[in-house]
Specification:
13-stranded antiparallel β-sheet; 11 helices; 8-stranded antiparallel β-sheet; binds zinc ion; alpha+beta
């Protein structure tokens, strides 16, 4: 680590071996941070830092001449005080992997750490701002963006932007957006954990965006946010500038956050990466980075990740012990690997104990039953919801001892829905402590291998005055009418951090526990959740087309094993159509959400074969292969396809789906990631008479032709490079 400490006009540089006096202002020269894909240069000016340039080796260089905007005021001693930042020190490691620029302000006494790091040798770099309150009393801060940019770009440069809608309740019509960025272009994408589906144009986005120069060499950059609270990304082109920012969502305005004495505020971490060779190449690098840096390291070490699961929601709230036992027995016969007990097992919302009539022998006994036949056991718990149960251990919304944990008061006659009550604010320490005890009890006493959360666990807003977030009822400095309704971003800031803390602690205690993120389906697909759970429910619609669409979208930015599709009961016409529905949900993490005991003997055999194939041939490619979107997004009418190819294994697979089109019996897909000069053995799982040898050149330039005799059927085409001796 090298430290450069600024002292009046002198600069002291210290190394591990001792101090060296240097006379030049070392930060005059750009500070460089790099990975194999991303090279960024930064400046540490006397009153503020800057991002000077961003580039990928062999690609465009994006330059910025403006300083980063740092907060310019803070509430202290009853009034807003101007904040003047002065450079204090620059720390960087010798390998160019991390950099910390420190600024200080004397009145009030604050320290700002401008942090950059490259956690992997490839992919993006990450950036965070931490503001420490060095006073002994609280300070309130306005919104500090995580990152802003103001690239100089020639007005004639052809650019396009890409962003991805969340799968939420149902995938939108477009899902994956690619839009030309013309002069005057303005865009904003927001993310929270609870937005309703609404019209397609108002759908929340996975907090990520990409900008590509559409001329050769198709280079560009992408920016994502590692946070599950209310965040936003923006982009605007005006003349020769391309500007925008990322961080906490400033809407609905007047954001304020309170930092206790000796406490700190940390902006959501963002990642910034550069690429050349187009957005598919960027996606491959990003997904590898997410898998290596954000994803739980144990997952990719376990060869059975992602698991094949059976979920009880096919029975809805009517699930009971007898049904669950027969589903477990059948799941084991089918070769599935986990039984996942969904909502319906508990006494009531907030009362997370087994329903005495439906599960008279308790949950642990059922878990043991699953374990006995070789299955893991997972369970749904909406652990931030309070209900009306008065049984011992229940979280009752009317209990005067816990009523202020709720985000709002509820009328005395208010009734919870069958599996949803009122959210408690886990940013409030006593509420969080109850959740910690409850999560620990559930995992321990119910013998869980997997815990699924649901509902809006990052609170939507909160009116309480005694919680750590800024409040309309009682701000740090007394009543502030202009804060009314404006604190939802700060509520989400504290609640998201509490969610991470709870899950980090749970993982420490139960390192083999799997955590599924679900928020009414795919509302929490973000990079903060990716870093604290093991997989996502990507949409709350479970038909074949919704599954393929949600997967197509989210798989641009997140590793395929994390992306869970639930496969619901489907009125299959025949076995080909049955297998089509299964495969539509088998491109990442697959959970069967239907009572498989109702399947016919032929369907059982077909499913057994499909699951065995998944475990032996598909899963290794889903885990280690590069994913290519080799068709347009599925529309249910036309054909669609998706390719995995693993250069290490020299193997790949193409999932091919024929839509409802009655006339088009064949389609062709240009494959990617192959060696043009190599020969490939091409094997058709369902139609082996089509097997052939084809050159990489032909597969990539003329394409892979596939015929399917009936609409809404599918094929798996395995591609194996033939060793050339
Ligand atoms: Zn609150």
């Amino acid at each position: 680590m090298t430290r450069i400490k600024i002292l009046r006009n002198f600069v002291l540089a210290s190394t591990l071996s001792g101090l060296v006096l240097v006379t030049a202002f070392a930060t005059d020269s750009p500070l460089r941070l790099s990975t194999a894909d991303t090279v960024i240069t930064l400046s540490a000016g006397p009153e503020g830092p800057g991002v000077l340039s961003l580039a990928s080796p062999g690609g465009e260089t994006w330059t910025d001449h403006r300083a980063q905007s740092l907060i310019e005021k803070a509430q202290w001693n009853g009034t807003w005080q101007p904040v003047h930042w002065k450079l204090a020190s620059v720390d960087r490691d010798r390998q160019g992997r991390s950099l910390t620029v420190v600024y200080e302000c004397n009145h009030p006494h604050l320290r700002l750490l401008w942090l950059w790091q490259a956690r992997d040798s490839s992919g993006p770099v990450e950036h965070t701002i931490k503001i420490e309150n060095l006073e002994s009393r609280p300070v309130a801060l306005p919104l500090q963006d995580s990152l802003s940019f103001n690239w100089s770009v020639p007005a004639s440069k052809p650019l396009c932007q890409m962003w991805i809608d969340k799968g939420a309740g149902k995938p939108t019509a477009t899902g994956t957006h690619r839009v030309a960025i013309s002069d005057g272009y303005r865009w904003e994408g927001t993310s929270s954990s609870y937005a309703p589906d609404g019209p397609d144009e108002s759908r929340e986005t996975i907090p990520w965006m990409l900008v590509e120069a559409t001329d050769e060499p198709h280079s560009g950059w992408y920016l994502g946010i590692e946070f599950s609270g209310r965040t936003s990304l923006s982009l605007a082109r005006e003349g020769s500038t391309l500007a925008g920012k990322a961080g906490l969502n400033p809407s609905p305005g007047s954001f304020i956050t309170q930092v206790p004495g000796a406490g700190s505020f940390t902006t959501p971490t963002v990642f910034l990466g550069a690429f050349s060779g187009g957005s598919e190449a960027a996606g491959i690098v990003l997904r590898r980075w997410v898998a290596r840096v954000l994803l739980n390291a144990a997952d990719m070490k376990s060869p059975s990740y992602p698991l094949l699961a059976e979920n009880s929601w096919g029975e809805g709230m009517e699930i009971n012990e007898e049904r669950a036992q027969s589903m477990i027995a059948d799941a084991a016969r089918l070769g599935l690997e986990m039984f996942h007990l969904d909502a319906g097992w508990f006494r009531g919302v907030g009362d997370w104990y087994p329903h005495p009539q439906r599960f008279p022998h308790g949950i642990a006994a059922l878990a043991d039953r699953a374990h006995h036949v070789g299955l893991k056991f997972g369970m749904w718990v909406d652990w931030t919801q309070a209900g009306t149960s008065t049984d011992p251990g229940a979280l009752n919304m009317h209990d005067p001892r816990t009523r202020n944990w709720l985000t709002r008061d509820v009328p005395a006659d208010w009734k919870p829905a069958p599996f949803k009550g009122v959210t408690i604010d886990i940013g409030y320490a006593p509420a969080r402590a109850w959740c910690a005890r409850e999560l620990n009890r559930l995992v321990r006493d119910d013998h869980l291998d997997m815990l699924e959360h649901d509902g809006y666990l990052v609170a939507e807003g909160c009116t309480r005055g005694d919680h750590p977030h800024a409040s309309c009822a009682r701000s740090l400095l007394g009543p502030e009418p202009w804060l009314i309704g404006s604190n939802s971003t700060d509520v989400s800031y504290h609640a998201a951090k509490a969610y991470y803390q709870l899950y980090e602690n749970l993982r420490l205690k139960y390192p083999h526990l799997l955590l599924e993120a679900c928020n009414d389906g795919g509302r929490m697909i973000d990079f903060g959740t990716a870093a604290h759970t093991d997989y996502f429910s990507i949409t709350d619609s479970y038909d074949p087309l919704s599954n393929r669409r949600a997967f197509y979208d989210a798989s641009h930015v997140l590793p395929a094993p994390m992306l869970e599709c639930y496969v619901e009961k489907y009125p299959a016409r025949d076995l080909a159509n049955f297998t089509y529905a299964l495969r539509s949900g088998m491109m990442g993490w697959c959970t069967i959400m239907q009572d498989t005991t109702t399947w016919t003997v032929e369907q059982h055999r077909a499913a057994q074969r499909a699951f065995q194939l998944y475990k032996t041939r598909l899963r290794p490619l889903i885990r280690s292969g590069d994913l290519y979107h080799v068709s347009a997004r599925p529309d249910g009418v036309h054909w669609d396809a998706l390719e995995y190819f693993s250069p290490d294994r020299k193997q790949g697979v193409v999932y091919v789906f024929r839509g409802s089109t009655p006339t088009q019996k064949e389609d062709t897909f240009l494959l990617e990631g192959l060696q043009p000069g190599s020969q490939y053995q091409v094997d058709f799982e369902d139609h082996p008479s089509e097997n052939r040898r084809v050159s990489g050149h032909e597969l990539m330039r003329r394409g892979l032709a596939v015929s399917l005799p009936e609409p809404e059927s599918s094929e798996l085409v395995f591609i194996t490079e033939i060793r050339s001796d």
